[in-house]
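name: query_chain
kind: protein
chains: 1
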Amino acid sequence: MNVIIFGATGTVGKQLVNQALHMGFHVRAYGRNVFTENLPENKELELIQGALFDEKQVFNAIKGCDAVLSALGGSFDGTDVTRSLGMKNIVAQMGKANVLRIIGIGGMGILNADEHTLIMDTPEFPPEYIPVSMEHFKAYNFLKASTLNWTFVCPPDIKDAGVTGIYTTNADFPPVKNKYHINAGDLAMFMLKEITANEFVKQKVGISN
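structure:
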């Protein structure tokens, strides 16, 4: 399995890199800082330094992969468009490269509160999280409008912690038993399993420890 990881130097991205290598995948880690972030030395790890918004660089990095994993991050104040426009470029280049499977990370705010309302549109949703939720929503819409086989995982608070293997998921809504946090290791584990499990194709996913 050949995978490319965008956001490979972040909290979840590093977990994705380590776990994918442990699973025997060939991994391409893409980003500006991949040579300075102490990623593991492994013959199956290919470091690709590049810009997220550069069409040619992203296309060349994606070409030949079996799946794309996006763990893009950024600021929470709405001034950073990495999540939305980064996803827009990834989706476009996947289409050109004929790579169809992608698992991305959003946020719990864009899950459904009920059949007609998103969590971020409810009165009790913290206003400080609205800008980043809007970024996640834009990224989700780029996926939804595509012909890709996408899954968009929408976690609550992500803890910088490893794998427990104990987590719960739910399509479109938060899990019924929701602890409102997920370990980065467990989030990465779910994303890697979902590449081939295909349990949530073209769906948002709620997740919690």
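note: The beta strands are 2-6, 26-31, 45-49, 67-70, 101-105, 149-154, 157-159, 168-171, 181-183, 203-208.
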